[in-house]
Design the sequence.
């Protein structure tokens, strides 16, 4: 694996026409309009599309299933998607792209419709171009405020007109997790809504806690989850391939404040520190670059469905060592297996992979089945 010494080099190779900003940056988004939501309950949208999935044990392709939204789940899930937009400028517009916002939402969130009503607002997120600008040391606090302002506005409108007092789960990734960190700290902690929050699932962006502690740091009163049935707590992690620990100063998995570590909660077994098998859902037809080249998922040929389900291909273990905190991932080799023993997740560009990002692209995929079970564990019957 070739490694870039400058973590943002892949993004810096992209053109960034920073002056070509969306024309509606000064106008608040009206989240009373259904058009400003990617997913809403009972609507034919990206979260309602059935997900054809094939089980992939070591013996090769097996049973096929189709994931579809539950008829009347007792919980709401509020999702904020990760950095995905290649729109020009530093903030995206509000027109979703099939290959960007819709793709991320389907891959990371739609499957949660099996256990909750799905809510996913569009927001004027910081674009991939903004990542490049930030890597040069430029101030992007304005674009960050705009993105968070949209998420907070959507949240308030959701609470006021769409939630109806139901329990809820927050779900995000990367920039989406950053947005939800702020939302939890500013809009939920210390308020009546906190009693209805079952879980905050916010991987792929550092949550800081004092070393050896479950609470403090990023959040004043919301602890890390330490057991499967716990509510009102945070599930946070950044995945790294085994023996590829976060380097000093890594973007993910390395605390930048003295006495702090980066939170890691293993979704398969919150509170555990040993190895556990992970319940994973993979996009078997993804074109994202992978160390070692494209994955051949089975010797039987190409995947029969877009999504593949494994329960023992990958194992995870939370590690906290001083400022480092991360979910270490290993793959399990079965002699004579028809199934691959390779998975991806690193952020790559022209064969180079960013060492301080870990397996960022698969933070959710590698444990998505476990996350769905954690929501089942805490849902009212």
Sequence:
């Amino acid at each position: 694996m070739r490694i870039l010494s400058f973590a943002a080099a892949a993004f810096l190779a992209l053109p960034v026409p920073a002056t070509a900003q969306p024309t509606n940056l000064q106008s608040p988004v009206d989240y009373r309009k259904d058009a400003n939501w990617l997913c809403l309950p009972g609507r034919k949208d990206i979260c309602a599309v059935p997900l054809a999935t094939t089980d992939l044990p070591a013996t090769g392709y097996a049973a096929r299933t189709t994931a579809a939204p539950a008829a009347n789940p007792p919980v709401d899930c509020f999702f904020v998607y990760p950095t995905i937009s290649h729109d020009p400028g530093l903030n995206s517009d509000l027109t979703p792209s099939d290959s960007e916002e819709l793709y991320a939402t389907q891959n990371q969130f739609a499957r949660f419709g099996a256990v909750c009503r799905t809510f996913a607002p569009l927001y004027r997120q910081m674009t991939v171009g903004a990542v490049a600008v930030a890597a040069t040391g430029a101030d992007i606090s304005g674009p960050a405020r705009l993105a968070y302002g949209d998420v907070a506005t959507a949240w308030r409108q959701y609470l006021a007109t769409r939630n109806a007092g139901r329990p809820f789960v927050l779900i995000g990734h990367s920039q989406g997790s950053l947005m939800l960190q702020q939302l939890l700290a500013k809009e939920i902690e210390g308020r009546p809504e906190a009693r209805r929050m079952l879980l905050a699932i916010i991987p792929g962006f550092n949550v800081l806690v004092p070393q050896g502690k479950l609470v403090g740091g990023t959040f004043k009163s919301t602890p890390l989850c330490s057991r499967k049935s716990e509510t009102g707590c945070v599930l946070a992690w950044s995945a790294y391939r085994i023996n590829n620990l976060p380097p000093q100063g890594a973007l993910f998995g390395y605390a930048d404040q003295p006495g702090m570590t980066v939170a890691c909660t293993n979704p398969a077994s919150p509170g555990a520190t040993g190895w556990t098998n992970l319940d994973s859902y993979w996009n078997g037809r993804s074109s994202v670059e992978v160390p070692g080249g494209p994955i051949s998922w089975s010797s039987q040929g190409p995947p029969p469905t877009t999504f593949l389900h494994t329960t023992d291909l990958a194992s995870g273990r939370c590690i906290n060592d001083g400022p480092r905190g991360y979910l270490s991932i290993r793959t399990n080799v079965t002699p004579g297996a028809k199934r691959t023993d390779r998975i991806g997740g690193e952020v790559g560009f022209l064969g180079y992979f960013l060492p301080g990002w870990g397996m960022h692209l698969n933070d959710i995929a590698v444990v998505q089945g476990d996350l769905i079970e954690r929501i089942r564990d805490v849902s009212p019957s």
